[in-house]
Structures are given as structure tokens and as C-alpha cells.
Amino acid sequence: MTLNNKIVLIVGGAAGIGKATAGVCAERGAMVIVGDFNVTEGARVAEDICARGQSASFVPVDVTEEASVSQMFDHIRSQHGRLDALVQCAGVLKGAFVPVEDFPLDVFRHVVEVNLTGSFLCAKHAVPLMKKNGKGVIVLVSSGAAHSGSSSVAYGSSKGGVSSLGITLASKLAPDNIRVNVVHPGEIRTAMKLSVIAAEAELKGQSADAAIAQASSGSRLGEPEGMGKILAWLVSDDADYVRGFIHTR
């Protein structure tokens, strides 16, 4: 499987699954564009890829602001003239284990803005570039929480929205030869997941460090690199016949 000559945008590429995906896509020949709110870490990911003799660049973006998302795609248009694939990984989880009756509205709104509105805005502005190509791939990273529940009312709700957004886009964009897939990762060893494990342990009066060590010692948590391989494959031509949801460990 090769991604030679592909222009691939990884939004949320500064850490976790996005960072791993950027690395795998670059290894397989893609020109990777890392988009992220975290300028320091996002730029470092692109620099590290370039240091390995592969192709990458960084563009700062706030996915909750349409002007910022539009500027990112204007940059891609001016520098590359096209976009072959978008992987939208940017997401936050806040309010873990907070009861719904106590859940702050501003936190709920923020999580939905990043996870769901951010996915919508990235797809909205990617589509014109892909239509110009005559084809494209959009991969939205949702979560197992979308169908099995979450520690956070806001996170579970937002990821359910991402899943529905992806399936809606898939049917509407199919006539334009734009494939849309939604990925539901399970439990992956990311900073976000480890923070939830720590929060649950503290809620139970247990040691957060011990809980993280226990979760990390067995096979409970998958590695971001494993997800990176799946997402890199999905944006390749080898995955042209794949439709709908993809569930992972």
C-alpha cells in the first residue's frame, strides 16, 4: 500500500492518534499536512517527519472557528492546489464522570464545538478542493463512546454526532466520488484515555498512577500506531471499496 503523491491533511495531528497517523502516512509516501491548535507540538511533529527525509508541513488551526479552518484550506490551496484526503482527529474529552444534573453547559458546548462542529467545518472546507480533484477521501474519527456510552455526557454526545455526520456526508458526497468513512476506536493509549483512567481511579479513592500502570501492563489498551496504520490505509486507493463505520480495538 502506497500513498505516493497523495496530499493528506491530518487535523489534530500534534498528538495521539493524529500524530501516529501523520507518521505512517509520511512513511508511505504522502505529503502530510499537520493541522492543530497546539502550535509547538504540531510544528514538532512536522519537523520530525522532515528530519526523517519525508514530507510534512504544519498549519495552525482552531477547528471551532470557521475563519481559522478556512485559512487552513486557503493555505493548502495556495501551496498544493489540491487535497486528496482529510483525516479529522481533533477532539477533546472534558467532564468525565460528572453527573448530567451537574454538567456545566459551557463545558458541554465546548466539547461539541471541538468534536462535532470542528468535524463539520473541516469537511465543509475540504469538499471544494476534493470536488476540483474529481475524488477524495474524508475520514472522521469518532469513538466507541458513540455507541457504547462514555464517561462524559458531552464527549459521548459529540461523538454520536460525528458518527451521524459522517454517514450523512457519505451518502451526499458519493456522487462526487468522495468517500467518507467513520472510525470508532476502542481503548487506545493516548493522553486523553490515560486522563480518564486517572480520573476514575481518583473518584474511587485509588491511586491514579497505579491505575494507569495496571491498564498499561496488559493488552487492555491499543497503541496509537496501530490506529495510524488503519487510518493511513483508509486514505489509500486500496480502501476504495470500504464504506460506512470501521470499529477497532
Description of the structure:
This protein is α/β, with parallel strands linked by helices and 249 residues long. It folds into two domains: 7-188 and 223-247, Rossmann fold; 190-222, no CATH class. It contains nine helices and seven strands. The chain has helices spanning 16-27, 39-51, 66-80, 105-133, 145-148, 153-173, 191-203, 208-217, 224-234; strands at 7-11, 31-36, 55-60, 85-88, 136-141, 178-184, 244-247. Strands 3-2-1-4-5-6-7 form a seven-stranded parallel β-sheet, with helices on both faces. Helix 1 runs parallel beside helix 2, helix 4 packs parallel to helix 6 (153-173) and helix 7 crosses helix 8 (208-217). The longest helix is centred in the middle third of the chain and has 29 residues, at 105-133.
Detail the topology: elements first, then pairings.
Elements: E1 7-11, H1 16-27, E2 31-36, H2 39-51, E3 55-60, H3 66-80, E4 85-88, H4 105-133, E5 136-141, H5 145-148, H6 153-173, E6 178-184, H7 191-203, H8 208-217, H9 224-234, E7 244-247
Give a brief rundown of this model:
It is built from 9 helices and 7 strands, in the order βαβαβαβαβααβαααβ.
User: Mind telling me which CATH architecture of the largest domain this is?
Assistant: 3-Layer(aba) Sandwich
Distance between the termini: 22 Å
- Which range best describes the helical content: under 10%, 10-25%, 25-40%, 40-55%, 55-70% or over 70%? 40-55%
The neighbouring-strand order within the major sheet is 3-2-1-4-5-6-7
Q: Strand content of the residues, in percent?
A: 15-25%
**CATH topology-level name of the largest domain:** Rossmann fold
How would you sum up the major sheet? 7 strands, parallel
Per DSSP E runs of 2 or more residues, the count of β-strands stands at 7
Radius of gyration: 18 Å
